[in-house]
Amino acid sequence: MIELTRSMVSLLRGDTTLAAKLGSFRGHPSIFGTAPIPETATTPFIVTQSVSDVTLNTKSGTVREIGQDIGIYDEQDGSPADVELIAEYVREKLRSVFDVPDWTMAALDISGPVLMDSERVHGRVLSARIIIGR
């Protein structure tokens, strides 16, 4: 869901502690709501996007259950410790409900991080289950 992804990107970009741990792109921390990320973005970076979206129509309105992945990646030129620390920081940051335009967030659960290393990058992925309604 685009509104949720935009809200999450804005929330994370607005965190100065997190921004200091990340690379940059066009004057902003390297946090993206779509993949692939721009080639000129520096690492480490975060990319988040919806992976599932189920709509439930209830008597009192509409409820959506959204699965959102938050991937944290860095070049594999050293220890994965930085990626681990960023993943844990983001996990804690997302423990509380945040605003999504035109929706009310009812629940937010985070699992992970799950190891997603490749030959080129260290990666960790958090999975969020988010319930919103209106």
Give the key terms.
134 residues; alpha+beta; five-stranded mixed beta sheet; two-stranded antiparallel ribbon; 3 helices; 7 strands; 45% strand
Order of helices and strands: HHEEEEEHEE
Sheet with the most strands?
Answer: 5 strands, mixed
**First and last CA, distance:** 14 Å
> Overall pLDDT, averaged?
94
Q: How helix-rich are the residues, as a percent range?
A: 10-25%
Uncertain segments: none
Return the structural class.
Answer: alpha+beta
The radius of gyration over CA amounts to: 15 Å
How many helices in DSSP terms? 3
Beta-strand percentage? 35-45%
Instruction: Give me the side-by-side strand order of the main sheet.
Output: 3-4-5-7-6
Write down the overall geometry.
Answer: elongated
Give me the count of strands: 7
Structural write-up:
- The chain has 134 residues and is α+β, with helices and mostly antiparallel strands.
- It has helices spanning 2-13, 16-21, 81-93, and strands spanning 24-25, 28-29, 31-32, 45-58, 61-75, 104-115, 121-133.
- The chain has a five-stranded mixed sheet with strand order 3-4-5-7-6. The protein has a two-stranded antiparallel sheet with strand order 1-2.
- A hairpin with a 2-residue loop joins β4 (45-58) and β5.
- The chain is elongated, with a radius of gyration of 15 Å.
- It starts with a helix and ends with a strand.
